[in-house]
Amino acid sequence: MKPIPDHIKENLDVLFVGFNPSIRSSETGHHFANPTNRFWSILYKAKITDRKYLPTEDEKLLDLGYGFTNIVARPTKNAQEISSDEYRIGRDELKAKIAKFQPKIVCFVGKGVYQQYSGRKKASWGKQSESIIPGVVDFVAPSSSGLVRMGIDDIAEIYSEIPRLIDMINFHHE
Questions:
Q1: Hey, what domains does the chain have and what are their CATH numbers?
Q2: Which of 103, 147, 153, 164 allows an S-S link to 12, with CB 3.0 to 4.6 Å?
Q3: Where is the signal peptide (predicted)?
Q4: Is the whole-model pTM more than 0.90?
């Protein structure tokens, strides 16, 4: 199983951070490629994208200001297979990436991803009151995995805060 490439560049509006690639993502080389994963539908429903993109188009989202990475690069069947050492190394690498590329918002796709990154036990949905990397907004969203019991409309409602946040940040930077 091989890791998949990050899609990342400087000054992105949003860097989406998942746990780690699925087996399907590893096989295809694309983010959120498992057919049971609702990520691409959520982005469209939340009005983050103007249409439902396919996992094979993940790189095209860089042009829209959206990037992708994971806290752990090793593909697994599920996040339970990730070791604490892998999380520790991944957390350090992720902090370095965020500090280097300075996205406006880092969206953690899953509360557990944020908890591993931040070391905080508690997190609410949406914008966090304190950021780990100064000048970058931390945003916690539900995982898009088909295993999550929340309905897709409820999940999309949380993600729909992102375009409003981008507008606010851009307004303050003008």
A1: 14-173 (3.40.470.10)
A2: 103
A3: none
A4: yes
